[in-house]
């Protein structure tokens, strides 16, 4: 039986254990493939949108561009058009976003809005990345900096442990060489003594 529940972005964020701001950003960029009803603050998403949001995150994590993600989502999922049924090639002129019986936004307006939002987001990200790179490790988010510090501490501890093991191995090798020399001298002495005994006998 189909799941007919509708979810707000806040509820979706809890289900996916992700920040609401991330989902708002994704819904603004990929709204045309997200099955939804209503507009503005009253917009709700169908249950299948959970899988689509997960796929968006996975595809972006693979390093795909927004255009490539959009193409892949369009291939995997039907476009959320009017009543939810995908239309043929002429659809872009009449496609509406938001479901229901009207009051939607035509595709060209939506693309223009998405393009403007995308440009603004790109500008903001470029600024943030610029600050992060020029500021060095101190400019990293606390969680990332803490994770890096933790990994660095672990690597140092492993390095120290390996150095201790190397010192033990080196001293053991020196001891073995010394023992070998002593054994060789002892055996040579025995062989020499046996040779002398035979010579005298």
UniProtKB/TrEMBL annotation:
Residues 145-186 form a coiled coil. One of its GO terms (biological process) is regulation of DNA-templated transcription. Residues 7-72 form the HTH merR-type domain. It comes from the Bacteria. One of its GO terms (molecular function) is DNA binding. Keywords: Coiled coil. InterPro entries: DNA-bd_dom_put_sf, MerR-type_HTH_dom. This is MerR family transcriptional regulator.
